[in-house]
Specification:
Elements (H helix, E strand, L loop, with lengths): L1 E3 L11 H5 L2 E5 L4 E7 L5 E3 L8 E3 L1 E4 L6 E3 H13 L6 E4 L13 E4 L2 E4 H20 L5 E6 L8 H17 L4 E6 H10 L6 E8 L4 E8 L13 E7 L3 H12 L19 H6 L5 H4 L2 H8 L8 H12 L3 H18 L3 E2 L17 E2 L1 H25 L7 E5 L6 H10 L4 E4 L5 H10 L8
Parallel strand pairs: 1-19, 2-11, 11-12, 13-18, 18-19
Antiparallel strand pairs: 2-3, 3-4, 3-5, 6-7, 6-8, 9-10, 13-14, 14-15, 16-17
Length: about 450
């Protein structure tokens, strides 16, 4: 059985929440972010972050034309407008969550001639999310319940702890005085629990932009807020694979070969891969257009047997089109998954007047599955292990959430792994934030 759960509509909490110290549940995601709050009457209110939308892309754009800073969907559109209008792209930043736990977070990067750390960029995003939430609420919010993946970094407890500490530090720098954390799949379970009528042993599958997280939990509708739920959580697991990894693999498989990826030099060597991997990775795209990278790429012209590919690659680097290529690959991925039909990848930005033959690429369902097969198998195996750790043969319910949870070949593999479980699709972009708002009512201990 497959069932869609309608997303909660945005509404304004009652003023009574002011006196009780409201807590904003924040799902700071690799690809998208969302927020929600439970008021003093126990009513859930999702926060409209972009018009009526209760989620926004985790994106910032620093325009080089007028030094304007934009966020979310506007950031993506401003970037595309500047490229198309010939102003020269400014600095678009996406998937900044992927840097948590790495030394890159505190490194300086140049933004329109000014040095700025990636940590400062995260703080800017948190400040904007807080500002938008408070503008809708009509009063300030000084406490936040933040979601976190089961593992920010696989098999490295020190870097994992650093990632959480960095996220907490950023939230405090953005103006939150009290901060606590809950695992994202557990938060998703708390949201699902408010919607069910009977008890269930549920495998929560949260497939986000950067990680895939799982929990097996005993859900009981009507549980009072504040009840200790530790004994209900039977197992948790996670793996550092998600939607941005899918985009990278599809970009490398479908688009980068048109720029020379995987090609051989006249002497039989494979062309250097670094520039292609950077172009296909959301949080590394900017590095591909650095002066050093441009100089190295220009010097490779003798190694290209197809000079049209070298010209396209230089065009992408000089015009800073890496984000645009990833965006059209992402669109093709979504279209192919939803329609189960081949999708043309829009590569009009690669057209050069000197080239008579247009660059063409498409993504078929078979190609989608084959390019992602290894990663989908790893995700499914992690889900199997979580169920085994819980001591179950099969969960009664399989609950899918997260922006990448609707990917058709992944859904198919999960259904094959758990054929007896009822399949439920939750609110892909808002479920974790809503669950974090509920979790805030059950966690009396706060970190400062």
């Amino acid at each position: 059985m497959v069932r869609e759960l309608a997303a909660s509509r945005p509404s304004v909490p009652t003023p009574e929440t002011i006196a009780t110290g409201p807590v904003l549940g924040i799902d700071f995601g690799t690809s998208n972010s969302a927020a929600a709050l439970v008021d003093a009457r126990g009513q859930l209110h999702t926060i409209a972050l972009e018009g009526a939308r209760t989620s926004m892309p985790t994106a910032l754009y620093f325009s080089s034309e007028d030094a304007h800073l934009s966020f979310g969907t506007a950031a993506m559109q401003d970037y595309l407008n500047d490229v198309q209008d010939g102003f020269g792209a400014g600095r678009l930043m996406r998937a900044i969550k992927s840097l948590l736990g790495s030394t890159l977070m505190d490194e300086q990067t140049m933004v329109n001639g000014q040095a700025m750390s990636f940590f400062d960029v995260v703080v800017l995003f948190f400040k904007e999310l807080k500002r938008r939430a408070e503008a809708q609420l009509g009063y300030p919010v000084s406490a936040a319940m933040l979601g976190r993946p089961v593992h920010f970094v696989d098999d490295n407890p020190q870097r994992d702890a650093l990632a959480q500490a960095t996220l907490q530090r950023a939230a405090v720098a953005a103006g939150f005085e009290r901060v606590a954390f809950e695992l994202e799949p557990i938060a998703a379970a708390f949201d699902f629990e408010r919607r069910i009528q009977t008890q269930a042993q549920v495998l929560v599958v949260d497939i986000g932009g950067g990680t895939s997280d799982f929990t097996v939990i005993q859900l009981r509708p009507g549980q009072p807020l504040g009840h200790d739920r530790r004994s209900d959580i039977l197992a948790t697991s996670g793996i550092h694979l998600g939607g941005t990894d899918f985009d990278r693999l599809l970009d490398l498989g479908c688009v980068m070969p048109l720029l020379g990826y995987g090609q051989r030099t006249p002497g039989g060597r494979e062309l250097p891969n670094r520039v292609f991997y950077e172009l296909a990775t959301w949080h590394l795209v900017h590095h591909a257009s650095s002066r050093k990278s441009l100089a190295e790429t220009r010097g490779l012209w003798r190694d290209f047997t197809d000079q049209a590919q070298h010209q396209r690659l230089l065009h992408v680097l000089t015009e800073r089109l890496g984000h645009q290529l990833l965006a059209v690959v992402e669109m093709a991925k979504i279209g192919c998954s939803e329609s189960q039909r081949s999708q043309r990848i829009d590569l009009s930005c690669l057209h050069l007047p000197s080239q008579t033959q247009a660059a063409l690429a498409e993504l078929s369902p078979a190609t989608l599955h084959s390019l992602l097969r290894t990663q989908l198998t790893a995700i499914t195996q992690c889900a199997r292990q979580c169920v085994a750790d819980a001591g179950l043969a099969q969960p009664s319910t399989l609950y899918l959430t997260g922006g990448s949870s609707a990917l058709s070949p992944l859904v198919g593999e999960l259904q094959a792994a758990f054929p007896n479980a009822h399949l439920v699709h939750g609110d892909r972009f808002g479920g974790v934030a809503s669950g974090l708002a509920w979790a805030a009512q059950q966690h009396p201990h706060w970190e400062r």
